[in-house]
Design brief:
The structure holds two protein chains of two kinds.
Chain A: H1 2-11, H2 17-22, E1 32-38, H3 44-52, E2 69-75, E3 78-84, H4 96-108, E4 112-118, H5 122-135, E5 139-144, H6 146-151, E6 154-156, H7 158-165, E7 169-171, H8 180-192, H9 210-223, H10 230-239, H11 242-250
Parallel strand pairs in A: 1-3, 1-4, 4-5, 5-7
Antiparallel strand pairs in A: 2-3
Helix pairs in contact in A: 9-10
Chain B: H1 10-22, H2 25-45, E1 46-48, H3 57-65, H4 71-115, H5 120-158, H6 161-174, H7 181-188, H8 192-198, H9 205-214, H10 224-235, H11 241-272, H12 294-329, E2 331-332, E3 335-336, H13 337-351, H14 356-364, H15 372-384, H16 402-411, H17 416-427, H18 433-443, H19 446-474
Antiparallel strand pairs in B: 2-3
Classes of the chains: A alpha/beta, B mainly alpha.
Chain lengths: 258, 475
């Protein structure tokens, strides 16, 4: 069973190699690429360190990771490259770090995007998680700082959350190394295709713009029939997101087909 | 409709047209719908048991350290004690390292070189230039860094730095800069190049430029040793020995605060002139206090910061040491290049309360601020011809304790004014070459890079001149 899975995934890495190389990622020695996204100060860099065994300094303040940090690990004989994206609150606005994170997930099409969120601030952190799920099909939710949540007497039904979001949800306390093995396994499962995500999508009923979104969506579908989630791209076009406009104009957006 | 009738740009044209129709509410309603769904999901899966405990530790600390009245004094005291511990703790190990690297290994290398008949100039360039410069940098820089960085990192891990930013935010906004500049400024205390890169967290290009240009006003770790050493010699010695440590720590903190003051003044003038505009709002999240993990902090701050900075200093010190040896030993009509330069700039330099040696040292030390003090000492020996220390021109010699350095500098004509002005000039001069290059990479503009480079020098010269004039009037 396992060897079958290995064979299957060895033949079909989901990432977009051309774009990854363009984004500056050297994939020559790796089977899968994992992106690490999350709000600032949720312990993203600590998760990065525990996954990679690196001991990059992690500071207790927002905005510590600027740009990207890269590392690697081996799990079940597969070589994973992991990219630590800058912490952001959303993927909608236009600051440089949000653009780095967004472009990487959208155009790089990582095999897995790990969304690290602060269990003590689930509601606020979910905003970013929902936005990430709009642009990728393969994600794992890392419910970090679960120890702090416990201390504050906050209980989270992670199995139910996983059912709602349609992706694996792993409670972790990365500082203590709790849950890292389970996280590794989930990353592997999603990357290898043995766990098929059914990501939650924001409902299409946004006040007063439905018709406009649908019209653009229809055109996009016609021109790029295989493009996943054209509705999100339609939303970005409607909002005037320059990077997406350029990608549609140049046809680069078609490379997202997988 | 057929597929081929859709042109490449027709989708975008449609989007542009529809954007006008949906109006300004679109972005807000999109965000609103995301928030609403996050709330629904969260309500489904989160349960909070019982009441929160009555006493909220985080809130309690925050009320004190971000209080209008106690916030700034606490900030001042915390910084001052960090420096005080650094100053008191660094002196002895510095002497120890110097005695090993300079007193023991240097003569050994010299003997080795002469026993295998290496020509004197190669011997001079490599051992008296390169090696000694490196040895000096290690002994002057390693102890203060090994004490300062772990303490600073502990404060950072505890979660204090965002509170500093919180305290400063209001002031930065009032001068027309972005509140997050308080964070990039704080990072600049570690390294200006890192602070300049960190300015990416600021969204508005105008405010980001201001943050980049003014980051140099944060004393970086290459300059802390200079500040600490000069303050110990010239300020610490003004008071009875028991208070020496406190007085020098206070002097260093004052220079650091002066730097913050200048960063505010310059931000204000930039936002009133070439970079006009309103400050944009943002939300700063105060992370929970987390007990720092002491051992891991010691490890990472030693590996990531101390050794990293030290390595950089060594890499720059070796070629600089070679340059120093060369300018001190290449003679034209019996006078060395260094002396030509020093004699040439001395009238101007002395007028602004510095001296030619300092100016030359800052030219040689453009690649790294770390090597200013070793260069100054070496050049002083060369010019004053002090005997008993050093072993020939261009040799960085053995000075095992601060008293030796003090004697040497005073023999070189240094006064308290020179000391004070060197501290000021160390705060206000061009960024190191790494930072200049980083500014260019971040702004992609030679104009702003040039401004960020030249502005602090102009300010440094002006302030030194002012202080020198006042000094001459009152003493």
């Amino acid at each position: 069973m396992n060897s079958f899975d290995n064979e299957k995934c060895a033949n079909c890495p989901a990432h977009n190699l051309t774009n990854l190389v363009k984004l500056g990622i050297d994939m020559s020695n790796f089977d899968f690429v994992v992106a690490l996204a999350g709000n600032p100060n949720t312990g993203k860099s600590t998760v990065f360190n525990s996954l990679t065994g690196l001991r990059q300094h992690t500071g207790n303040w927002p905005g510590k990771t600027v740009g990207r940090a890269e590392g690697g690990f081996i799990y079940s004989n597969k070589r994973f490259k992991i990219v630590d994206l800058p912490g952001t609150y959303s993927l909608l606005s236009t600051s440089t770090d949000e653009e780095i994170a967004r472009d990487f997930i959208l155009f790089g099409q990582p095999d897995v995007t790990v969304i690290v969120i602060d269990a003590t601030r689930l509601e606020r952190n979910l905003n970013l998680a929902l936005q990430v799920l709009e642009i990728t099909d393969r994600a794992v939710l890392c419910l970090n700082l679960i120890d702090e949540a416990k201390r504050h007497k906050i209980k989270i039904d992670d199995r139910n959350l996983s059912k709602v979001l349609g992706i694996p949800v792993i409670p972790t306390a990365a500082r203590q190394g709790v849950g890292i093995q389970e996280l590794l396994k989930s990353i592997y499962d999603v990357a290898s295709g043995s766990y098929i995500c059914k990501p939650y999508r924001i409902s299409s009923d946004i006040k007063g713009v439905n018709k406009a979104v649908e019209e653009i969506n229809r055109m996009l579908k016609q021109k790029f029939p295989n493009l996943p989630n054209t509705r999100w791209i339609a939303l970005r076009l409607l909002e005037g997101d320059q990077r997406i406009i350029d990608a549609v104009r140049s046809g680069e957006i078609a490379e997202l087909i997988h | 409709m057929k597929i081929e009738t859709i042109h490449d740009n027709s989708i975008i044209a449609t989007a542009n047209k529809l954007r006008w129709e949906v109006g300004d509410y679109f972005h807000d309603s999109l965000i609103e719908s995301i928030y609403k769904e996050a709330e629904v999901i969260s309500n489904k899966v989160v349960t909070t048991e019982g009441k929160k405990s009555q006493f909220d530790f985080d809130k309690f600390i925050d009320q004190i350290v971000t209080n209008k009245w106690t916030g700034f004094p606490i900030m001042f005291l915390l910084l001052a004690s960090v420096f005080w511990i650094t100053i008191i703790g660094a002196n002895y190990p510095s002497g120890l390292i110097a005695s090993v690297l300079v007193d023991t290994i240097h003569p050994f290398l010299k003997n080795l070189a002469s026993s295998i008949n290496i020509p004197w100039y190669i011997n001079g360039v490599l051992i008296d230039g390169g090696y000694l410069a490196m040895a000096w940098v290690v002994s002057v820089m390693l102890p203060p860094m090994a004490i300062f960085f772990p303490m600073f990192t502990l404060l950072e891990d505890f979660g204090y730095l965002p509170r500093v930013a919180f305290n400063m935010d209001n002031i930065y906004r009032r001068v027309g800069a972005h509140g997050k500049q308080a964070l990039t400024m704080t990072m600049g205390f570690g390294c200006n190049a890192a602070g300049v890169i960190a300015a990416r967290i600021i969204d508005s290009p105008r405010e980001r430029l201001i943050a980049i240009i003014t980051n140099n006003f944060s004393l970086c770790n290459g300059r802390w040793p200079t500040q600490i050493l000069i303050a110990t010699i010239f300020i610490g010695n003004l008071v009875p020995p028991i208070y020496g440590g406190i007085a020098s720590a206070a002097a260093v903190v004052s220079v650091a605060l002066l730097g913050i003051f200048f960063s505010l003044v310059v931000s204000w003038s930039l936002s009133k002139t070439v970079l006009k505009g309103e400050a944009s709002a943002f939300s700063l999240e105060l992370p929970p206090y987390r007990p720092p993990r002491i051992l891991q902090t010691l490890y990472t701050s030693l590996i990531d910061r101390t050794l990293f900075v030290l390595w950089r200093a060594i890499v720059f010190a070796i070629p600089a040491g070679i340059v120093i040896w060369l300018v001190a030993n290449v003679n034209i009509q019996g006078i060395s290049l260094a002396e030509y330069f020093i004699r040439f700039v001395d009238p101007f330099a002395l007028f602004i309360g510095l001296n030619g040696v300092i100016i030359l040292a800052y030219v040689i030390a453009i690649p790294a601020n770390e090597i200013v003090i070793p260069t100054v000492l070496m050049l002083t020996v060369l010019v004053t011809g002090v005997t008993g220390v050093g072993s020939g021109s261009g040799v960085m010699f053995e000075l095992n304790n601060i008293d030796d350095v003090s004697m040497l500098l005073k023999a070189g004509g240094w006064t308290t004014l020179t000391g004070i002005n060197l501290m000021l000039f160390s705060l206000l001069h061009n960024p190191c070459s790494t930072t200049i290059f980083t500014i260019y990479k971040e702004t992609k503009s030679w104009k702003w890079t040039l401004l960020a480079t030249l502005l602090p020098i102009m300010m440094g010269i002006t302030i030194c001149l002012l202080v020198a004039q006042l000094w001459r009037i009152f003493t």
